[in-house]
Each structure stands twice: as C-alpha cells, then as structure tokens.
Design a protein that fits this description.
The complex is a heterodimer of chains A (289) and B (615).
Chain A lengths: L25 E5 L4 H10 L11 H8 L7 E5 L9 E5 L8 E3 L5 H4 L9 H10 L2 E2 L3 H7 L5 H8 L10 H4 L7 H6 L3 H9 L25 E4 L5 H4 E6 L1 H12 L5 H9 L7 H16 L1
Antiparallel strand pairs in A: 1-2, 1-3, 2-6, 3-7, 4-5, 4-6
Chain B lengths: L2 E7 L8 E10 L4 E4 L5 E3 H10 L2 E9 L5 E7 L6 H5 L7 E5 L2 E7 L2 H19 L6 H13 L4 H10 L2 H14 L3 H15 L3 E7 L10 H18 L2 H6 L14 E6 L4 E5 L7 H18 L5 H4 L2 H11 L6 E6 L5 E2 L10 E17 L4 E6 L3 E5 L25 E11 L5 E10 L20 E4 L2 E4 L23 E8 L26 H11 L6 H12 L4 H10 L3 E8 L2 E7 L15 H10 L7
Antiparallel strand pairs in B: 1-2, 1-5, 2-3, 2-6, 3-4, 6-8, 7-8, 9-11, 9-12, 10-11, 12-13, 14-15, 14-17, 15-16, 17-18, 19-20, 21-23, 22-23
Classes of the chains: A alpha+beta (289), B alpha+beta (615).
Chain lengths: 289, 615
C-alpha cells in the first residue's frame, strides 16, 4: 500500500527525509462491548473509550500527569491481547499526535528502572522523550535508524535496540540525575536517595533489562482526541468469529451503503489481530526492498 | 521439548461452523504462552485473563512436533450436512484433537492453511452449485467462506448466485469493496453473469478455408473434430487452474455446446447455459471456453504445450490454413483476431541478425507479442523471449500497453528459421524506444536510416543528426551530393556483422557507393541510379528486380512502399544478406499517400524536395 505511487496519503507527504520506519502503519488493538459498537469505531473514528468506562489507561494517565482520554497507537505492531479488533492508521496520521519511543503507560508499573523512580523524575523522563508527531520523520531516522535493516530490526519484536535506552539516542534530552540536581531540581536527588538508588539506575537504560519487553522500545503515538477514520484508516481486522458477525451486520439494514463500503473496503483477512499485524509488517518490509 | 497447543487467538461460539486464529502454544519447559504467528510470549496468568475477556479461546491440549508458524482451525459437526466441508481431513496438518463434535486442527502457516482454505472453497462451491434450493444453512456456509477467504471472486460470485434477490445488491457492493484489484472485481462480475445467465463465445473464420461464402464440408468436419480433440485434451485442466477440482469429474465434463452456426459467415457460437443442467455445468462450460480463448492468445499450460497431438489439433482449430483469418469474441465484445502461433516442431537456427528502425504498431500484452513496423515490413516478436533463452532487453516497458503504441523504436532482431527454410520467426534481442531530444547510438547501421534526414516513423518526425550514424570514419552523408543528401544506401550487416563501406575514389554519379562484400555491385549501383534520378525508368528497374529474383509476392510490398512516405525496398541478394535502399527525403514533413503512377512523377518528387524544402 505504501508503495503505490502518487497515493495522496502516502508517507512521502511527511516533510523531510526520514527513516524507513516512518512508512510503517500505526496500530491499535481494542475491544468493545458489541460488534456494532466496534464497527462504529471503524466508521466514525478511532476514539478513546467513553468517559463512563473506567480503564487502566485513564488511571495511568493521571499518574503521569497527562491530560486524560488519549487515543493510543503503536508503530508497526500492537498487542493482540489488547482486543479482538485492530485498526491501522496511515503514517501522516501521526502529525497531530505526541510520540515517545516507549510505551508511556508502562513507565508507571512495568518498565525498569523508570517505574521505580519517584513520580516527578519519572514524569520528567516521559515528558523529555515526548515530541510532536510532526517531527516524527526526523526522529525515526535517529531511532530505529535511517536504513531498511534498522526498520526490519525494529519490526522483529524479539531483537532489542542496539542502544541501552533513548538517552543514548538523544543524549541532550534527559541529562543524568546529578546534572539535573545541579540545575536546582532538588526533589529528584532526594527522592533517588530516599529510594536507595545508586547512580547507575539514574540513567534510564530501559532497553536493556531482561524483564523489559518489546513495549519498551516501541514508538507510541497519542492523540488528545479521536482520529478520523475516513482520513487515516488504512485497514482494520478482527478475529474470524467476529468477522462472521460483522458479515451478518453488513447485510442488515443497520448500516448505510456508504458505511458498508467503508467497512468492507478497509477490512483485512479475518484471521485475527496478530495475523494482520504480522502481514502488514511483512508487506511494508517487502515494499522497502 | 514438545510444544502443545492450548488455545487460539479470537473468540469462538458454538453457532459458527468454523473459526480460526493464531495458535496459543505452550512449552512444557516454561510457564509462558506464545502466539503461534508472532512468537510473542505472555505469562500463563495473562493468557487466563485473555480467555476470560474473550480475546482467546481454550482448546484441548494437543502436541505439535513442528516449530513452524501455525494457526488453529476449529470446525463443528453441528451441521451434519455440511460438516465435511469445513473439516478437510485430507489436507496435511501439524496436529489435531477432537472433543465431542468439535474438531481442532493446527495448520502450518501460510502453506498448509492456504491449502486448507483452497480445499474448503473447492468443496463448498461444488456442493452449492449442484443444488437448486439455497436454505439458510447454505447462506451461512457461504458467508463463512467469505470470511475465510475475503478476496476470492468465485466465492463472492457463488454467494451472490445463491442469495435471495433482495440481498444481492448489497452483496455485490460488499464483494466489490472486499476484492482488492480491478481484475478480481471484473472476474467477479463475469462470474456472476455466467452463473445467472448465459455466456457466449464465438469463433469466426474468414478467407482461406472460408473464402467465398460458406465452408467446405470437409473443412468443417476437420475443424469440428479438432475442437472435440481439444476438448478432450483440456480434460478439466481448467478446473485445476481455478482450484475447483471437485466441481466436476473428468468424464462428466460437458463438451462445448454449439448454439448457432452461421455457415455463410463461417461463424460458430457456443453457449454455457443448457436447460435442465445444474449451475456447476454452466461454470465448467464457461471455464473451458475461457481456456480455449486463452489458448487462442497463446496462454497454454506447459503440460498441454508439450503434447504434440493436442497442439496439432489446436493448430487446426485456430490456424486451419495460412491464409485463413480466425477471429473470436466472448460475450458482446468486438471480434478480435487470433494471434495463434503454429508450433514449429523442428529446431530453429539463428540466421541473420540486424537492427531495424520503425515504430510499435501493436502491443498484445496477453500473448506477450509485439508488432514492430519497419519501413519494409512488420515483424511480430515476443516480449518474453529473445530466441536465445533470455528476455529481450527493454521489452518490459510494454507492460503498459498504451504508452508506447506508435512510438518510434530501434530493435535488434534475429531471423530464425528451420534448416529446410520452410518456417521462420523473428526474435528481438533488444528494443529501445526513441525519445525526443535523446540521441540514440547504433552499433550497426540500421535499415531505413539516413543521417541528416528527417524520417517519419509512425506519427513522429525524427531528425537524425550525422553523429548518430557513423560508419567507419566516413559518415555516409558526406559522400552524398548536396542535392541528393537524402538518398543513401544503408546496408544491414552481412553474415551477422556490418560490412564496411569503402570509398574508392572521389564520388561521382555512378560510383559514389562502393560495393560491399557479398552484394552484387551492379545491382546496388543500378538501384542507386534509379533513386538518384538517373534515366533508368522505375518500372524497368522493378521488372529487372523481378527477373533477377523472381520474388513475386514482394511486388505488393514494393508498390505500397513506393506510395508511402519513404521509398524503401529490400534487395534480397542471397540467403543471408540484405541490403536496403532508402529514400527518405521526399517526405520530410509530409505524407505522400498516392501511388506514383509514372516514373516522371517520381523523378520530379525525388529532385524537387530537399531537406529544407518542406511543403
């Protein structure tokens, strides 16, 4: 898809020459209470779950001092366990988002050593490695890197980045704890001392510890509102049983012809989320070659 | 360490006939559950949560030997009539289990899984197309099949065919949206038409065996028995190609049904719909006629191509004699002439190689053939073969048909012939399109080229600068008298390479072109004399040409060429040498359409128009 010449929504629209990873799709897996509700996501736009639903994500956002109710997506992959549906967004969608080279939610409870840090220092870390999506083309040439092989390495979830953490890629963004302390940020030093941490763990080597999985080195994009599916949705997929229900729904009168067209046009083989993710990664790689 | 399947990704309920998803596998050695496709691992506790949330489904544990990527297919036996269709026990799998009436199989991805899908489609389509009543279960099965393989035109077409009329419009919309390429969508439309109604195919003969009106009964019998043999030869190979092997058994394959025969115009019309037959027969008839249509374009399975008896029969059907023009059409399309190439049994040997300048007159992308029109004649060459086992260089541009039609080109061609010389064929080794403002350098002097002249090729005017055509160190143009700059002889090479042009002395009217090896000197100078406005009358020259070589069939070409913008004739001196005399200056910018009736007129034109004298 990304290879089609002259396609208006292609990656070439992003300014500047970037890394090959800037051509990957942004993916989000999600679940909804019913098939019809999930279909609405596809037709009306990708949005966070309604306010009434209390999610773990909302809690995490509070902990990170972020505005709540973001829409999240990962670059080139997602966790099938997040839901039975997956939506894949075209590269230009990222322009209106904030991007980070790790799963920000993971910083609260999972990503070592950041999750053990004091709240202020941890949130400063997240903030330091958050950029506007407009610069993503340039960022992607720094991590994972400018070449195809960097991109292939990124898509292979089992291979870690060559650096120990984002601070090696962008050294100026997040100076070591001592320097920050010198700059007058006393809290950090105190809290680090309180937690009994040594200097080593002050460096955020989040890509190194064996317990940290691929979510620590995955680009995350977060939009503060819904993302239009007519503009940015490339494909969506669901598991086989759900696909049969979707098919029934398509024949019913619940949907207009236009919606039917949008839904079936952008659907991918109904083999489930992980299959679709796998296929799309492979297809983009093939396109790069 | 053995890997065991313990579940699969995706939700599953008992009311669907089949469900599938990435396998959830577990090694006895650790406590992680891995995704069979992505290899991502989660702790077992997380997997339990997925089961609770309905994102994954548990299966009975069963062992797997292979470490390949895998998917699990769950089929249910609650629909007794259709149960076999989704089970597909003949397709190889990595492991299986059964609990109550539910069958679990793990397939290697993608190969085994694709075979499973193909076998299921085959079984379901065959089952549906022999029925006349389509109940809810049948609809359900077809719906499931569409989710199993969303981009399969046949499946969508059969689903439309079996659906109640009220649903068809929406099903068509859905099919069009789901099918990714225009080819798939076209295929779907054709198949829907075929299943619903009738598809016609017409074969028409003209001239040759059909000269005058009607057909000789002997020829008719010969052609029709060839058709029957061809039908036997196909022996449902077309079903294999479509992956619908269960649709019909070999011996049941219906022969072509002749619907109408117009004796006077020698045209045969075949139909697919026969009253009282199930839709499966209709589809089979259509696929066979379509295969015949493909064969007419040269797309024949390798297996059949290597069968001389089949090829001979196909030859009789599609090329009954050299002078017969065979055309065909499917449905309401226009008649298309058939470019069927009669196979040459004995071996071809490479003969003369030469470079020709001309334009692309036809591109047949379906048969990978190209018609190159040079000043002398039309060469039909393959875009896939160069005669030496490779693909011609530069032929790949013809995949987009329209762009290069009527565009000027230079091609290196080789003439191949059988040892007895009865059959011949041309192969192109290199084809270069001539772009405006881009000089083209020739290795050999091409036929029909004169430096300094403006040549009309197709609808393009081409100015050839002198540097483009350097032969030895003396540009040909240099030796030409000023007012006759446009007249020259360009020689194709002799014995595979270009023969040197030698200058003997200061050029004069008679001897400014010196004979080359292998070409009779007298002939060349004589031709030149005609062209350079000497007194020898054109008719006399033509007559002497015929006397000398007795090549009567060439007369037509010669006269047509005379009437054309460029005055060109090939002189055949012996079996492997050609020389071409070209007169180009006449039609610098103008097309002379009329024949030259008398030699005076020709002489006048030859002398009047020079390069700068453009009418």
């Amino acid at each position: 898809v990304l290879n089609r010449p002259g396609k208006p929504n292609g990656a070439q629209e992003l300014s500047g020459s970037g890394g090959q990873a800037a051509r990957l799709l942004w993916m989000q897996a999600f679940n909804r209470a019913s098939v019809l509700e999930a279909i609405r996501v596809v037709t009306n736009g990708i949005a966070p779950p309604p306010e009434s639903v209390e999610t773990k994500t909302g809690q995490t956002e509070l902990e990170l001092d972020m505005e709540t109710r973001h829409t999240y997506a990962y670059l080139g992959r997602t966790q099938e366990a997040f839901g039975a549906f997956v939506v894949m967004l075209r590269p230009p969608a990222v322009a209106t988002a904030l991007v980070s080279p790790f799963d920000t939610g993971g910083c609260v409870g999972k990503i070592q050593p950041v999750c053990r840090w004091a709240r202020e220092r941890r949130n400063a870390f997240v903030k330091a490695f958050s950029w506007s999506g407009e610069t993503f083309n340039m960022l992607s040439s720094e991590y994972p890197g400018p070449t195809e092989s960097d991109c292939a390495r990124y898509l292979n979830t089992s291979s870690r980045p060559t650096q120990t953490g984002p601070h090696e890629v962008w050294p100026k963004r997040f100076p070591p704890g001592d320097e920050m302390a010198k700059n007058g940020d006393q809290n950090i030093k105190t809290s680090a001392a309180v937690n009994g941490e040594n200097d080593e763990s002050a460096t955020p080597m989040i890509w190194q510890p064996a317990d940290n999985d691929w979510r620590c080195w995955t680009w995350e994009a977060r939009w503060s509102g819904p993302v239009s599916s007519t503009d940015h949705l490339e494909h969506w997929a669901c598991d086989s049983t759900t696909a049969q229900l979707v098919d029934k729904l398509l024949l019913s009168d619940e949907l207009s012809d236009e919606q039917v067209k949008l839904i079936s046009q952008r659907r991918y083989d109904a083999v489930g989320v992980s299959h679709a993710v796998e296929q799309y990664g492979a297809r983009v790689l093939e396109g790069l070659k | 360490v053995t890997t065991k399947v313990i579940g699969f990704e995706g939700h599953w309920s008992q009311d669907v006939a089949v469900a599938w998803g990435a396998a959830a596998t577990k090694n006895d050695a650790d406590s992680f559950v891995a995704n069979g496709l992505t290899g991502l691992k989660v702790p077992e506790a997380d997997f339990q949560r997925f089961l609770f949330e309905g994102v994954a489904t548990q299966t009975p544990k069963f062992g797997l030997e292979d470490e390949a990527a895998r998917v699990v297919v769950v089929s249910v036996r609650t629909w007794p009539r259709w149960e076999q269709l989704f089970v597909q026990s003949n397709v190889q799998c990595l492991g299986k289990a059964r609990r109550n009436n539910v069958v679990y199989r793990a397939y290697q991805y993608p190969d085994q899984f694709e075979s499973y899908i193909a076998a299921t489609i085959d079984a379901v389509v065959a089952e549906v197309l022999y029925r006349t009543d389509f109940d809810e279960t049948c609809q359900e099965v077809l719906r499931t099949l569409c989710t199993l393989k969303p981009q399969h035109p046949v499946v969508h077409a059969v689903r439309c065919f079996a659906a109640p009329a009220a649903r068809r419009a929406r099903l068509k919309t859905m099919a069009h949206a789901a099918l990714a390429t225009p080819e798939q969508r076209n295929r779907f439309d054709v198949l829907v038409q075929v299943l619903d109604g009738n598809h016609e195919y017409e074969l028409r003969y003209a001239e040759g065996i059909a000269a005058g009106r009607g057909l000789n009964v002997g020829d008719l019998v010969r052609v029709m028995s060839a058709l029957e043999r061809v039908h036997e030869g196909f022996s449902s190979s077309f079903l294999k190609r479509e992956g619908l092997e269960q649709l019909i058994r070999d011996e049941d394959a219906p022969g072509p049904q002749l619907d109408a025969f117009k004796a006077a115009s020698a045209s045969f019309k075949f139909r697919t719909r026969v009253d009282g037959e199930p839709a499966a027969m209709r589809l089979a008839r259509f696929l066979e006629l379509e295969t015949l249509e493909r064969a007419a374009h040269g797309n024949i399975d390798d297996e059949l191509r290597s069968d001389p008896a089949f090829m001979e029969n196909l030859g009789v059907l599609l090329h009954p004699s050299d002078d017969t023009v065979v055309s065909h059409r499917a449905g309401e399309d226009d008649f298309q002439s058939i470019a069927f190439e009669v196979p040459i049994e004995s071996e071809l040997v490479a003969g003369l190689a030469f470079e020709c300048v001309g334009f692309v007159q036809g591109v047949f992308s379906n048969t990978r053939r190209l018609e190159l029109r040079s000043t002398r004649r039309t060469y039909v060459v393959s875009t896939g073969e160069d005669g030496f086992g490779n693909s011609p260089v530069g032929a790949e541009v013809f995949s987009s048909q329209q762009k290069y039609l009527f565009a000027p080109m230079v091609a290196s061609l080789t003439h191949f012939h059988t040892l007895n010389g009865r059959k011949e064929r041309y192969y192109a080794q290199r084809i270069s399109m001539l772009e405006p403002e881009t000089p083209h350098y020739f290795e050999w002097a091409p036929s029909g080229l004169v430096p300094g002249a403006i040549v009309r090729i197709g609808r393009h005017a081409l100015k050839l600068s002198q540097e483009l055509l350097l032969i030895d160190e003396n540009p040909v143009a240099e030796v030409l008298p000023a007012n006759l700059h446009s007249v020259s002889a360009c020689l194709e090479q002799l014995e595979g390479r270009f023969a040197q042009l030698e200058l003997a002395a200061r050029p004069s009217a008679q001897d400014w072109l010196i004979p080359v090896r292998g070409v009779k000197p007298s002939l060349i100078s004589r031709l030149l004399a005609v062209a350079t406005n000497e007194r020898a009358p054109v008719n006399q020259w033509i007559a002497s040409y015929y006397n000398r070589f007795g090549k009567k069939p060439q007369r037509r070409t010669l006269e047509r060429t005379l009437g054309d913008s460029a005055f060109v004739q090939i002189i055949r001196t012996d079996d492997d040498a050609y020389a071409e005399l070209t007169q180009v200056g006449i039609a610098a910018r103008r097309v002379v359409l009329s024949f030259f009736e008398a030699e005076e007129e020709l002489r006048e034109r030859l002398s009047v128009h020079t390069q700068d004298d453009r009418p």
